[in-house]
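Retro notes (design track)

What went well: tokenization of the new backbones is finally stable.
What didn't: we kept losing track of which sequence belonged to which structure.
Fix going forward: every design gets posted as structure first, then sequence, in one message. First example under the new rule, 178 residues:
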């Protein structure tokens, strides 16, 4: 089931590898809709790692709910499952260089502003992380576009003088082959 009001999106799923890719695409599409394209890579990485943990470790089933919520100054992403056991965070220095597991929560911590885990009901938990929303996305609608002014008096002459107010035209180029 998928629901997505204007500032909230919820996806219920069984955390299987094929579904994880689908949820990553849903999260990416929702962030594009919210004009938060700059957060897509980090949010997709974080949700992938959390869903992979559910797939590998959650008991008694792999059912979970992914929620993304756009708050005033941050994006909150959480994954709720039915396993009350808390995740174990490996010290990244203790994980073998070529290990294929054990780094997921360390990566979530590295790409997020904050993260944590909380009990969810009587038999479950929610693992969550936050990402700061870009100031430009929050303020873009509130302010008129600004003109950029280059202070040419601060720069010394190094070569031929260039009038920065009248840039030279580059030759026309085509992206078409042939």
């Amino acid at each position: 089931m998928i629901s997505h009001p204007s500032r909230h999106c919820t996806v219920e799923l069984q955390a299987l590898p094929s579904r994880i890719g689908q949820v990553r695409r849903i999260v990416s599409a929702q962030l594009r809709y919210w004009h938060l394209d700059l957060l897509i890579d980090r949010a997709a990485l974080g949700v992938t790692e959390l869903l992979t943990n559910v797939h590998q470790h959650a008991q008694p089933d792999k059912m979970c709910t992914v929620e993304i919520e756009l708050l005033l100054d941050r994006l909150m992403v959480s994954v709720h499952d039915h396993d009350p056991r808390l995740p174990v965070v490996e010290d990244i220095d203790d994980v073998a260089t070529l290990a294929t597991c054990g780094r997921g929560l360390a990566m979530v911590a590295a790409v997020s502003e904050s993260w944590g885990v909380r009990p969810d009901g009587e038999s479950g938990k929610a693992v969550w992380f936050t990402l700061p929303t870009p100031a430009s996305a929050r303020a873009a609608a509130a302010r008129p576009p600004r003109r950029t002014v280059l202070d040419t008096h601060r720069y010394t002459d190094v070569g031929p003088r260039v009038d920065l107010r009248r840039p030279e035209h580059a030759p026309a180029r085509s992206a078409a082959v042939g």
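Added context from the reviewer: The longest strand covers residues 63-70.
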